[in-house]
Specification:
This protein is mainly α. 48% of the residues lie in helices and 5% in strands. It has six helices and three strands; from the N terminus they run βααββαααα. Strands 1-3-2 form a three-stranded antiparallel beta sheet.
């Protein structure tokens, strides 16, 4: 028997609350919350009343935190973790879990596509804003009305919402020599 192997009757490795916090890179409050929600469980309490967790609960906690980061609600996570128990046969349980996970995979894929698009757009916006941050036009924000950055074909749509241009009254001649378009809409 290797020195690292445990004897069959040796107690399982116990993790303290502090070890769970460090191992999952979270807070003690979060660990206690997930325990109260029944998503993780203590294996015992120390004589002083401190929580002890099995190593498997740290892995489960990491999964719960990852699922929360992906937008699943506490109830959805609970459903995923307990789905196996809902079937009366292994086949029913496997089919139920598979269906549930496929639904979540489709939603995660949809979100991943949005995140990738936004990442590209916001990255491009940050680069454009770097140019704005170094703009030394003495007119300040009013210079934005004649700036070519918003009209470039490479300017992402999000830039126009994040860095809105000052509104120029209709009919005013801009620094570029053209007339400003009215920003008012009918009924507004």
């Amino acid at each position: 028997m290797s020195p690292r192997a445990q004897a069959p009757d040796a107690p399982k490795q116990r993790l303290t609350l502090r070890a769970m916090v460090r191992g999952a890179n979270t807070t003690a409050r979060a660990v206690r919350f997930y325990e109260a929600q029944g998503l993780i469980q203590t294996m015992a309490r120390s004589p002083g009343g401190h929580r002890w967790f099995a190593q498997s609960e740290l892995d489960r906690l990491r999964l719960v935190i990852d699922l929360r980061a992906c937008g699943l609600s506490i109830e959805e996570i609970r459903t995923v973790l307990l789905a196996k128990e809902q079937g009366t046969t292994p086949q029913q349980s496997a089919t139920a879990v598979q269906s549930l996970l496929n639904t979540h995979l489709l939603e995660l894929s949809r979100k991943a596509t949005i995140i990738q698009r936004l990442s590209r757009e916001l990255g491009a916006t940050v680069q454009l804003l770097d140019q704005c941050a170094h703009c030394d036009d003495p007119r300040g924000l009013q210079a934005c009305t004649s700036c070519e950055l918003p009209s470039l074909s490479t300017t992402p749509p999000s830039f126009h919402h994040i860095w809105t241009l000052p509104q120029v009254p209709s009919g005013t001649i801009t620094a570029a020599g053209g007339r400003a378009r009215s920003t008012r809409r009918n009924g507004g």
